[in-house]
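Sharing a chain and its predicted structure for anyone who wants a worked example. Both blocks are below, sequence first, tokens second.
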Amino acid sequence: MVDIIDGALFQRMIVHGSASISAQKQAINDLNVFPVPDGDTGTNMSLTIGTAAAEAKKKPAQSIGKAASVNASALLRGARGNSGVILSLLFRGISKGFKEKDEADGVVFAAALNEGVSAAYKAVMKPAEGTILTVSRLAAARAAEAAQERNSVEAVLEAAIAEGQTALADTVNQNPVLKKAGVVDAGGKGFLTILQGMLDELRGLPIPAEEDEGLPVKESADFAALGEEDITFTFDTVFIVRKRPGKSIDPFRAYLNGIGDSLVIGEDDESFKVHVHTDTPGQALSEAQKYGTLELAKIENMRTQAEELAAGRQAQSTDDLDQVEAELEAQKDGAGDQKPAAPEKKYGVVAVCAGEGMASVFRDLGVDAVISGGQTMNPSTEDILRAIDRTPAEVVFVLPNNKNIIMAAQQCVGFVPDKQVVVVPTRTVPQGISAMLVLDPEADTDANSAAMEEARKNVRTSEITYAARDSDFDGFDIHEGDYMALAEGQLFGTDRAITSLLERLAQAPSQQDASFITIFYGEDVTEDQAGEALALFQKVCPNAEITLLSGGQPVYYYMISAE
């Protein structure tokens, strides 16, 4: 009997659990009834924990706290569907229970399971009985009792699974949709399959390679028995958002709950993942961007999928997009590069920037392609060429917006057949924005080049970043972690307080003489902090028209444009 586990053993348990559900995923898929097109529960849960298993194989961790933390992070990033998100939440809570621990006994393991259940319930707006939540809650409650009877991880896990199986069998009586289809909850079955795999690892059993038999109850859902009334909202919508620092997503939870159901939100320190059923997925995605940067999304029509399944046909899903992508790849030319877009207009623009807010400004101004990059993230010439190729214009202006990218951009000149490439040597994003503002579709290329060059020269850019190491530079005694202010790329000053630097910048001639000032705040600045910066500039620069925008840029807390 295994009483205590460490990080390395926990990782092997995760790998075994992942293999177990992978072997049984189709049997679990066949139980998936509502929401029918959640993208097969078994597949979703298998892929979700598969990301954690892959991470566990890369680098063994001796500390169970570290192993669980890495596991939870991987699960969130790989979570798919309602069941996958809840699974990631369960293990996120387990990670909290193992935090800063080198190993776990039965009592700690049971407490961690209950932490997981708590995390999952908190994230689900309207918890329903007869689901994975019910199974996990009752299993964890029994685990806590078992830990008092025998302080052994193996004994606790065994007791939890036994109680979970009883709870699973009862889900058919708790959920009307399950009762109609005559099956148990697929998510609950998947969770217990993973736990069983983890227990099998403790017992030294081999990792499964083949699909196991299904449950003794009905082996697949009767989709023909499910009517239109069983699907309240049409679109199954899943997306990941990189969080904006200091921005609570509680209002977003309430918003989503008002436009849909089956809402689950999982989050960690950096991002959050949403699963919701709604009739207006576009609105959900648009609203999400108020809380961070949208990174990934999938939308599936549950009604059409249910019709296909009820008719005995295979329902299409976003997984079928792999085939579409393969077809698009096949349309590329023999060299493997995508065929350049044929000119549809005279002028096009490619801009480089970091931060979704910055990218949005350029797109609003009509930029055709935005390349993600900037300080510490310099794109290659190939990256820029690829964007130029995609731009359907005779003349393509390139705005590097960073002094370290100008040379790479210049290598593209004369390199693209049938397109003239003009590099405007913008050294900052504010310079690029000003250059874009004066582009005239009716003017000739030389006139536009001259106007854009003049516009960029008229912009004065100040920035606030931080010192990465100690230094004695240009008469400044700089210490790691100091805030640093730059004016036109030159060191302006340092301070331990960012507000002091902002005030000194506002008092500088470039800001005092300006008619227009734009403050772009970065990803590490909260809205409240940015509002304080705006108020400070409005007080110190009363004669200027001042605009505050979320740039979302890394590295730089503020970029300040003065004209």
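Comments welcome. The first helix runs from residue 7 to 29.
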